[in-house]
Every structure is written in structure tokens, then in C-alpha cells.
Specification:
The protein is α+β, with helices and mostly antiparallel strands. 37% of the residues lie in helices and 13% in strands. The strands form two sheets. Strands 1-2-6-5 form a four-stranded antiparallel β-sheet. The chain has a two-stranded antiparallel sheet with strand order 3-4. Strand 3 and strand 4 form a beta hairpin.
Length: 241
């Protein structure tokens, strides 16, 4: 790379990329193995109370932190909760909101019909059973040490990618989780004493599946339903647009 390629940027701001070029056969083997692993991923709602080493969660968060983000601003905060008292408060607050959603008309009937097959309800015992809860917050803007604001770009997209990598990291190491989004989620900001620039994005209970756990029998869409290849369309004279 030369300064001519990036005239607005000092060459010294870049380092050499050490990406490894693999053979096509090795790439296919690795891709297939990763697909097979992730195809077995399921959201779990029944967790063992067995302890999970903290360093495993830390590694998953560190892995999630490698996600790309708008202008490399990394607009995420992962809040780790393991003490029973706080987990209990989270469960009670989440169930209060969800009870209103399910029983008092705040949740549309068509949405309740869609999720009925998943075996979910307003009761969330897994928020206490799972040894760890991680709440992922999006940083709507940055805050300097002097309180000045810094605009963040593509916050939801960035945090969403980090969440996906986090789920993949947990599944790869053999832990189970659930992407839980109690609505509304503002209680988590107050309960976990987060600053005004942060907003809860997803809550993850994390642990081992309870022995004998079951999950809904679901099928994922086949490739031809989620992949469309675009081709330029020929014009009357045979050229393409």
C-alpha cells in the first residue's frame, strides 16, 4: 500500500495484514465443519445450575469484541452478572414486563400465535437458573472523560454483528444461550447502573443445557430461499445494463 492509495491517511496508521491463503479444498473443509457446528445451534430455555468458569465467558466477550463496527468505534458494552441476588432482580423485572405483554394486551395476538410453538411464556426461570447473564448494551454515542459526546455510526448494525459472533463463540465452546429481549428493556439500564448513553440491546442467559432439555422441532430455510444471485438483464440489442 502506498500513500497514493489513501491520500487522506498517513501510511503509518496501517499495519500489514497477515491473512492466510488456504487451498480451495481446505476452505471447503473448514466451511463445511463450521456450518455443521452452527447448524446444531439452538436457543435453550432450560439451563443447568452447574457453574461455568468465568474465563469462558470472558473469552466469548473478547471474541465478540473482534466484530467490525462503524468507524471502528466499537459501540458496545457487555455487562456480566453472576450473583444470585442480581439475577433474581432481573428475572422479577423481566417477568413483570412480560406478564403485561402476554396477559394485558400489550403483545399483538398474531405475535403470540407465532411464538406459541416455541414453548415460551411470560415466566423466565432460566434468568435465575443459568449461572451467568450477559446484557449487551449499545452505546448510542460515546462519552469522553470530560463528558463530551462523540457521535457513533451504524450502532445497531455493529452491535448486532457483535451479538452474532458472541452467540457463535458460546456455541463453539459447548455452552448454550438464548437471545432474550424483554420489552421494554429500560429497567436493565437502571438495575445495572449503566450510563445515559447506553441502551440495552439483548440479554443472554448462559450455561449448560439442563439434562433432558428439549427444543422446538424447527426447520431452517433452505439455501434457495435465502440466497438470490443477481444477473444483469440483457437489453433488446443484446447488451447488459
Amino acid at each position: 500500500m502506498s500513500a497514493d492509495q489513501y491520500p487522506h491517511t498517513a501510511v503509518g496508521d496501517f499495519v500489514s495484514y497477515e491473512g492466510r491463503r488456504r487451498s480451495e479444498s481446505e476452505m471447503r473443509k473448514r466451511a463445511s465443519a463450521f456450518y455443521d457446528l452452527m447448524a446444531r445451534r439452538r436457543s435453550v430455555r432450560t439451563f443447568s445450575t452447574e457453574d461455568v468458569p468465568r474465563d469462558l465467558i470472558e473469552t466469548a466477550v473478547r471474541t465478540a469484541g473482534t466484530a467490525p463496527s462503524g468507524a471502528h468505534q466499537q459501540p458496545w458494552t457487555f455487562v456480566l452478572v453472576g450473583d444470585p441476588q442480581t439475577k433474581r432482580r432481573i428475572r422479577l423485572a423481566a417477568e413483570e414486563e412480560e406478564r403485561t405483554n402476554y396477559l394485558n394486551g400489550r403483545m399483538p395476538d398474531d405475535w403470540k400465535e407465532e411464538i406459541a410453538r416455541l414453548g415460551t411464556s411470560w415466566r423466565k426461570p432460566y434468568l435465575e437458573d443459568a449461572p451467568w447473564i450477559v446484557v449487551l448494551f449499545e452505546q448510542r454515542y460515546g462519552l469522553g472523560v470530560d463528558g463530551t459526546r462523540r457521535k457513533h455510526y451504524y450502532v445497531k448494525e455493529s452491535v448486532g454483528i457483535a451479538a452474532g459472533i458472541f452467540v457463535a463463540a458460546l456455541h463453539t465452546m459447548g455452552l448454550a444461550t438464548l437471545t432474550h429481549t424483554p420489552s421494554p428493556m429500560a429497567f436493565l439500564t437502571k438495575l445495572l447502573d449503566r450510563p445515559s448513553n447506553e441502551r440495552p440491546f439483548i440479554l443472554f442467559p448462559i450455561g449448560y443445557p439442563e439434562p433432558g432439555s428439549v427444543v422446538p422441532k424447527l426447520e431452517r430455510k433452505p439455501l434457495d430461499e435465502i440466497l438470490v444471485e443477481y444477473h444483469d438483464q440483457p437489453t433488446e440489442d443484446g447488451s447488459v445494463t
